[in-house]
């Protein structure tokens, strides 16, 4: 039995997405920059996909470009806003401590170039307020970048409120919406978003393709030098099959948004209720302001890696947090930012659901996690010290 509960890391491609790609690997394989009809057929597909994706975000087709995924989109959005700011002598950027590394590492690079970065603290539930953003904006602020929904603890931020504050203060607003697209309602105009990153493989589309929305008037800085593709904003022959797969997957996810969210929320809350029965466990992230498919717990006296390996033995694919930090021994920066101490942060488990998961799978998973946590505690010297009172429990 295989139960896949790591959809925040990546998703299985949908049949719709695969079918949308096949014609462009087989029959229509021209280069959209070519003048002959084979090239023009590919170019028409590109135009079609751009329009469909723009429509789903509430923007114009020419405001969309196609980077290689969420990481590239985040890099380009932030660097572009920084370059625009720099030209006006504005070198201050506001963000949060719980952003994805594609954002945080880009900000680190800018800091080395003389930018000043304010990372907003988040409270235990991981929720950033528009008041915090308002208070952090200065006359020399050129960009606010706050993720739409967190990939580890699932917290959904008040994007429209933050957008309104940024617009009022004349500061560009970027949001990493990689976890939100296909799961939450997005309207870039109504939410006052200037730059938005998304990635196809997080909503049952192909890997290695994403989209960047940049509002008219926001000048994108080229990260890839070369040809004049994407109006000179992103060199390289366009990945038409992936772009077509992304458009199809996004339409499918967005057209089923309400039904999927209701199903996922029910499964999520069932899983949360089951895992909350484990003694000395705590739910990470806000119980309500969270992605419909995200569950994240810390279990005291547990080592996350062992938990994952034993769950894998039971046929369950889970994660300790970010796919990018798993494999390293550093605890998650997100869990540390919401106030979990190192020992507790090490005992984390993220389960991220898809519409294909069933109640039976959720119930099996609850049983398996209970069993594995009890087993790991039974062989843990730390747990023995906690139970005997030699050490104090951090999670009541
Ligand atoms: C997955 C993810 C990314 C990176 O997207 P890629 O397409 O894998 O480069 C960025 N931000 C968030 C929030 C993510 O979940």
Question: Describe it for me?
Answer:
This protein has 396 residues and is of the alpha/beta class. The protein has a domain at 3-10 and 257-388: Aspartate Aminotransferase, domain 1 (Alpha-Beta Complex), CATH 3.90.1150. It is built from 14 helices and 12 strands. It has helices spanning 15-21, 23-26, 37-57, 70-86, 101-112, 130-136, 159-169, 240-255, 257-276, 304-313, 333-337, 342-345, 359-378, 381-388; strands spanning 3-4, 64-65, 92-96, 116-120, 141-145, 172-176, 195-199, 210-214, 281-283, 294-299, 316-317, 348-352. The chain has a 7-stranded mixed beta sheet, sandwiched between helices. Strand 5, helix 7 and strand 6 (172-176) form a beta-alpha-beta unit. Helix 10 packs across helix 13. The longest helix has 21 residues, at 37-57. The radius of gyration is 22 Å and the shape is globular. The model has no long low-confidence stretch (mean pLDDT 96). Residues 69-71, 74, 100, 102, 147, 151, 176, 178-179, 199, 201-202, 210 line the site of pyridoxal-5'-phosphate. Pyridoxal-5'-phosphate (PLP) is lined by residues 69-71, 74, 100, 102, 147, 151, 176, 178-179, 199, 201-202, 210.
């Amino acid at each position: 039995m295989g139960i896949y509960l790591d959809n925040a890391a990546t998703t299985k491609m949908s049949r719709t997405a695969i079918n949308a790609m096949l014609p462009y690997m087989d029959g229509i394989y021209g280069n959209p920059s070519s003048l002959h009809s084979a090239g023009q057929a590919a170019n028409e597909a590109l135009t079609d996909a751009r329009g469909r994706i723009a429509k789903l975000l509430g923007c114009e087709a020419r405001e969309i470009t196609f980077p290689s995924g969420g990481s590239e989109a985040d890099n380009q959005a932030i660097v572009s806003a920084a370059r625009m700011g720099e030209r006006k002598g504005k070198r201050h950027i506001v963000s949060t401590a719980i952003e994805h590394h594609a954002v945080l590492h880009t900000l680190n690079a800018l800091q080395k170039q003389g930018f000043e970065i304010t990372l907003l603290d988040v409270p235990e539930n991981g929720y950033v307020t528009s008041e915090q953003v308002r208070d952090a904006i200065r006359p020399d602020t050129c960009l606010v970048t706050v993720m739409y929904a967190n990939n580890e603890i699932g917290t959904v931020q008040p994007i429209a409120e933050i957008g309104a504050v940024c617009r009022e203060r004349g500061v560009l607003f970027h949001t990493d919406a990689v976890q939100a697209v296909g799961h939450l309602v997005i309207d870039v105009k109504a939410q006052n978003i200037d730059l938005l990153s998304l990635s196809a493989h997080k909503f049952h589309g192909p890997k290695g393709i994403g989209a960047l929305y940049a509002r008219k008037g926001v000048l994108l800085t080229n990260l890839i030098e070369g040809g004049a593709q994407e109006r000179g904003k992103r060199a390289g022959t366009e990945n038409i099959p992936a772009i077509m797969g992304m458009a199809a997957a996004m339409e499918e996810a967005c057209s089923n948004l309400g039904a999927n969210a209701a199903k996922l929320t029910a499964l999520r809350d069932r899983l949360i209720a089951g895992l909350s029965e484990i003694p000395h466990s705590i739910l990470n992230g806000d119980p309500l302001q969270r992605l419909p498919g995200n569950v994240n717990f810390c279990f005291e006296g547990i080592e996350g890696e062992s938990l994952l390996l034993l769950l894998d033995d039971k046929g369950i694919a889970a994660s300790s947090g970010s796919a990018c930090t798993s494999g390293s021994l550093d605890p998650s920066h997100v869990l540390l930012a919401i106030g979990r101490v190192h020992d507790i942060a090490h005992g984390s488990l993220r389960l991220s659901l898809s519409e294909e998961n069933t109640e039976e799978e959720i119930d099996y998973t609850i049983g398996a996690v209970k069993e594995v946590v009890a087993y790991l505690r039974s062989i843990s010297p730390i747990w023995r010290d906690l139970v005997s009172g030699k050490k104090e429990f951090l999670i009541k």
